[in-house]
Amino acid sequence: GLLGKIGDTTRRTVVIGDPDTPMAAMADDTIVLEFADEKSVVQTRFATSALTLLRAHLGLHTDAVVEDAQVALAEPLPTGLVECSQFTFLGQGWSVGLANEAALKMREAALAWT
């Protein structure tokens, strides 16, 4: 794989759910999120945990993020939202992968058209 081709000139750090994988053995540093390892089709816990870890490392994860999530979950859904049948997630540059992942999660978890 790609990680094995990098060689010894570049330090390799992996964020992984299962430490007993070949990728973990090839890395110089391993950040193990065993609590978030998932075997299901919809793997939301690992992606969310890894994103939170990386945001915290960059100083972007603050208590305000948690408070914003709590407020959003406490608010009632806007009228008509439950009846929506198609959803679109947009991304540009680095956020294309995030938009694709959001669309996949919506298709898998809600069986919705994206």
TrEMBL record:
GO terms for biological process: carbohydrate derivative metabolic process. The keyword Disulfide bond does not apply. One of its GO terms (molecular function) is carbohydrate derivative binding. InterPro entries: SIS_dom_sf. SUPFAM superfamilies: SIS domain (SSF53697). Keywords: Isomerase. It comes from the Bacteria. This is Sugar isomerase. It comes from Streptomyces sp. SID7499.
